[in-house]
Amino acid sequence: MKTTQPIRWGILACGGIARKFADDLAYVTDGYLAAVASRDITRAQEFASHYSKDVKTYGSYEAMLASGEIDVVYIASPHALHYEHTILCLDADLPVLCEKAFAINSGQVAKMIAKAREKNIFLMEALWTRFHPSVAKVQEILASGVIGDILHLEADFGIKLPYVEEARWFNPYLTGGSLMDIGIYPLFISKLILGQPLELKATGVMAGTGVDMNCSIVTKYKSGATATLFSTFAAQTDTTCTIYGTLGKIFM
C-alpha cells in the first residue's frame, strides 16, 4: 500500500452504513473515496453522485478489486456476506476494513485472520467504539487503580425499531437480530475490560422471523468479576456501561 500519497478507498456495497462511512471519509486528510462497487451499476452510480465526480463506479465487486484504482477496501455488505467478501478482497491482495459484525461465527473469523496472515495483508473490524476517546479514558482510569478491583460490569444497547420482517434487522438470511447488530457493543466493552469469560449464559426473546429481539448475557471471569449485557430492538435504552469496583465505579 502507498504510504506517501493519500490512501485510495474503495467501498464494497452501497447501503446506509456505506453512506455514513463515505460522508466521514471527507474529513480525512490522508485518504479519499476513489471507487464504489455494487452488484447493480446504477446503484453504484447513484451512490457516487453524492461525492466527487472522480469516484469510479463498478457493477461488480471483482471489477473494482481488479481495477488498480484503490489501495484498501471498506466492506459494507450485510453481516452474512462479510466472510465471502473479505476473502475475495484478501485474495485480490487488498487490505480490508470490514464493517462489524466481523463475521457470523468464530470459524469464519478464524479463516479470515488466517488468510490475512498468509497474505501478510492488513485486516480489521470496523468497530468504532474501540477508538472512542471515552473508552481510552476508562482504560486510563482503570489502570490507575482508583476504583480498586473490578467486581461487576453492566452494559446495554437498545434501539426501538418498527417490526418489518423484510428489514435487515429482522431477516435471518441477512444475519439479523439485536446481538449481531448492536449487542456486539456491550460484548466488546466487557471483553476489552475483563478479558475472555470463563462462563457465559444467554437467553433471548425471538422475533417472528426467528432472530433475537432481545438478548441478555451473564458472564463470569477468572478474576471473579461478573458482567450483565443486554441488547434489544424493542426499546430505546440508555446505552450505558457501569463498572463497579471495590473502591468506586465508572459510568460511561
What would a concise description of this structure say?
This protein is α/β, with parallel strands linked by helices and 252 residues long. The chain has two domains: 7-126, Rossmann fold; 132-251, Dihydrodipicolinate Reductase, domain 2 (2-Layer Sandwich). It contains seven helices and twelve strands.
What can you see in these coordinates?
The chain is 30% helix and 27% strand. It is an alpha/beta fold and 252 residues long. The chain has two domains: 7-126, NAD(P)-binding Rossmann-like Domain (Rossmann fold, 3-Layer(aba) Sandwich), CATH 3.40.50; 132-251, 2-Layer Sandwich (Dihydrodipicolinate Reductase, domain 2). The strands form two sheets. A six-stranded parallel sheet has the order 3-2-1-4-5-6, sandwiched between helices. Helix 4 (82-91) runs parallel beside helix 5. The model has no long low-confidence stretch (mean pLDDT 96).
Write the layout of secondary structure elements.
Layout: E1 7-12, H1 16-25, E2 31-37, H2 41-48, E3 56-58, H3 61-65, E4 72-75, H4 82-91, E5 96-99, H5 106-119, E6 123-126, H6 133-144, E7 150-158, H7 178-194, E8 199-206, E9 212-220, E10 226-232, E11 241-245, E12 249-251
Helix pairs in contact: 4-5
